[in-house]
Design brief:
By secondary structure, the chain is α/β, with parallel strands linked by helices. The protein has a domain at 2-134 and 224-239: 3-Layer(aba) Sandwich (Rossmann fold), CATH 3.40.50. The protein is built from 8 helices and 10 strands. A 7-stranded parallel beta sheet has the order 1-10-9-6-2-3-5. A 3-stranded antiparallel beta sheet has the order 4-8-7, covered by helices on one side. Helix 1 crosses helix 2 (42-54). The longest helix is centred in the first third of the chain and has 18 residues, at 9-26. The mean pLDDT is 97. It binds 2-amino-2-deoxy-6-O-phosphono-alpha-D-glucopyranose. 2-amino-2-deoxy-6-O-phosphono-alpha-D-glucopyranose is lined by residues 36-40, 67-68, 133-135, 141-142, 162, 166.
């Protein structure tokens, strides 16, 4: 595992965007990016928009697969992850929107939607580079503590602490959906390369626990240490309990 220590979230975003940009430049043919939402990767998208524009680098050969989506929020809903991705990233680059995928949290049959999404990723050749954030309880995607490492894309009930942490994006905590569809740990681990971003003092306990290296389903991110190609980019605030 390659751990890169940086000063702040700006430097983390620059490093992450540089890595993604270099994969885009060196990949011949299609590149499949696994993408994440939340506050942490926002700066990475901004930097990648700037870099690709400056270099005239097209996203025509890129397909994107997001980790997760809330159940019951349409793409017009400002709190849906589809809305986040469109406004923070897709609307600013030349990617055809039909090459961008998220689980459909409005599907009538959610179990079928999970299976469809998993198969969609496989049929497209799998994910080349997966960008990840981490929840303060160690969740990745929406894989909460206790999720079996063997799970593929599935329906989850959000942990109370995740609902509280994500409430800042909603008018009121009661509006935070209680369910989501998420790629599973097994789906995430099939990515050829993983880039984990950790920023801010509210992630310091999670980073310290991550680095202590105990493999446990009670701390979902711990599985990443068993992946052969992981880069962790962590800023000073998140690393200060080491
Ligand atoms: C959400 C997302 C995760 C994300 C986490 C941390 O629960 N499903 O993918 O990593 O929040 O978000 P933030 O970066 O805003 O702290």
């Amino acid at each position: 595992m390659n751990v890169i220590y940086v000063k702040d979230s700006k430097e983390m975003s620059e490093k992450a965007a540089s890595l993604l940009f270099s994969r885009m430049k060196t990949t011949e043919g299609q590149l499949n990016l696994g993408l994440a939402t939340g506050g942490t990767p926002q700066g990475t998208y901004e930097e990648l928009i700037k870099k690709t524009r400056a270099a005239n680098q097209s996203f025509a050969q890129v397909k994107t697969f997001n980790l997760d989506e809330y159940v019951g929020l349409s793409e017009e809903n400002h709190q849906s992850y589809r809305y986040y991705m469109n406004t923070h990233f897709f609307n600013h680059i030349d990617i055809p929107i039909e090459q961008t995928f998220l689980p459909n949290g409005m599907a009538l049959n959610l179990e079928e939607e999970c299976a469809r999404y998993e198969q969609l990723i496989i049929d497209n050749g799998g994910i080349d580079v997966q960008l990840l954030g981490i929840g303060s309880n160690g969740h990745i995607g929406f894989n909460e503590p206790g999720t079996p490492f063997s799970e593929e894309t599935h329906l989850v009930k959000l942990a109370q602490e995740t609902k509280e942490a994500n409430a800042r994006y909603f008018n009121d905590q009661s509006e935070v959906p209680s369910q989501a569809i998420t790629m599973g740990i097994a789906s995430i681990m099939r990515a050829k390369e993983i880039v984990l971003l950790i920023s801010g003092e509210n992630k310091a306990d999670a980073f310290a626990k991550f680095m202590n290296g105990t493999l446990s389903e009670q701390f979902p991110a711990s599985i990443l240490e068993t992946h052969e190609n992981v880069t962790v980019i962590v800023d000073e605030a998140a690393a200060n309990k080491m």
